[in-house]
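From the methods appendix. Each design record in this collection lists the tokenized structure first, followed by the designed amino acid sequence. Records were kept in a plain field format so they could be parsed without special tools. The example shown here is representative of the layout used throughout.

RECORD:
FOLD TOKENS (400 positions):
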């Protein structure tokens, strides 16, 4: 039976919870930076599963690793060691300079685990009153009850009370506000090097460096949420490597598996020591199948010249967007890091996202007025040109 876009949509509306603002079409096939819907329409994917498909759709090295591992060992639980998991842990530690890894299934779980670690660390060294986590306004850390409250956007908190306690928010890059918020009750500061859901805002280099020094001085854990900005998207393996800092804890997901669900948080030995046996766990976390895929992703990202090519493509993409901004006053600002780019408009962006899809371009809108581009890191200059041309047509005739 061949299903059409309408068939799939109707079945989904009947049986799937209505928690997403979905398109009218259903994607059924992907290759590289291209995807196709059930009616055969082709799209240029500049969202990459929201920063997940870092090597594009169905990259051969990942699909081969999955098939090989599926024919070998798919799941054991974490009662047993497995080779793919320990090899991936070694690669992540060597690439980041951190010491230990905990594997889970998503970014929300990674951030939830990092919060647990921070509170356990605070309790171990200073007592249970040291439990507050400071996060940034406009941040996004997940949709579990704790990570929802860690998220510094009130719109995500509505209707889900009573909320988890022990979180404070300060504006991104506001040093004085941060100093005021950090007292003896604070066990950690959690921050995204580049805010994604909040509008694609990179942290200021000097702010992050001063924050690292403050955390070291007061023995507060510095948690960097790299769920969206990690894995080559910034032009480095990890975004913090652009800033000359080292976190105590780092959270990962999205691009780690290249399309399969895997999350992780890494920590220094001193921080990781607070999570002993029985203090945290995950049935599916780091199973052999997803770890084999992630190892294939890591191998590609670490190949000579790959990350340098991301920086080259980023510069090329931004050059094209700057040319559009000179032509279309509706573009107010272009910001981001690497291939994580936000285009702030003077008009709402949701309608433009829908119109872009009708012209064969997949992007999305964040913070109501910022078009977000998260292409596969394998995107070609020609595909960037194609996206720029479609955006040019979309913006023609719009008034600022």
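DESIGN:
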């Amino acid at each position: 039976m061949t299903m059409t876009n309408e068939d799939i949509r109707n079945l989904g509306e009947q049986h799937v919870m209505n928690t997403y603002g979905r398109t009218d079409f259903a994607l059924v096939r992907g290759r590289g930076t291209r995807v196709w819907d059930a009616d055969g329409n082709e799209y240029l994917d500049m969202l990459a599963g929201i920063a997940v498909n870092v090597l594009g759709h169905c990259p051969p090295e990942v699909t081969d690793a999955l098939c090989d591992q599926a024919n070998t060992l798919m799941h054991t639980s974490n009662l047993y060691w497995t080779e793919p998991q320990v090899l991936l842990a070694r690669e992540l530690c060597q690439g980041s300079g951190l010491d230990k890894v905990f594997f889970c299934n998503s970014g929300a779980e990674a951030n939830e685990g990092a919060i647990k670690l921070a509170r356990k660390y605070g309790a171990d060294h200073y007592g249970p009153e040291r439990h507050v986590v400071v996060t940034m306004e406009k941040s996004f850390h997940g949709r579990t009850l704790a990570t929802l409250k860690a998220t510094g956007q009130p719109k995500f908190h509505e209707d889900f009370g009573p909320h988890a306690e022990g979180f404070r928010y300060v504006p991104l890059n506001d040093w004085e506000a941060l100093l005021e918020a950090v007292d003896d009750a604070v066990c950690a500061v959690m921050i995204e090097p580049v805010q994604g859901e909040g509008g694609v805002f990179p942290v200021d280099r000097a702010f992050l460096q001063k924050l690292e020094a403050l955390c070291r001085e007061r023995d507060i854990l510095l948690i960097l949420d790299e769920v969206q900005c990690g894995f080559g998207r910034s032009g480095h393996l990890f975004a913090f490597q652009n800033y000359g800092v080292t976190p105590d804890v780092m959270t990962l997901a999205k691009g780690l598996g290249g399309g399969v669900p895997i999350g992780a948080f890494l920590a220094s030995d001193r921080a990781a020591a607070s999570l002993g046996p029985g203090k945290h766990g995950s049935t599916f976390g780091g199973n052999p199948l997803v770890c084999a895929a992630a190892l294939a992703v890591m191998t590609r990202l670490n190949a000579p010249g790959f990350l340098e090519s991301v920086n080259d493509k980023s510069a090329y993409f931004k050059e094209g967007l700057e040319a559009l901004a000179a032509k279309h006053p509706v573009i107010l600002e272009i910001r981001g890091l690497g291939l994580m780019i936000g285009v702030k408009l003077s008009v709402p962006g949701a309608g433009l996202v829908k119109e872009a899809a009708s012209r064969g371009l997949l992007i999305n809108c964040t913070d109501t007025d910022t078009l977000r581009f998260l292409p596969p890191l394998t995107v070609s200059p020609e595909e960037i040109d194609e996206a720029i041309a479609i955006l040019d047509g979309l913006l023609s005739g719009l008034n600022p």
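APPENDIX NOTE: The mean pLDDT is 96.
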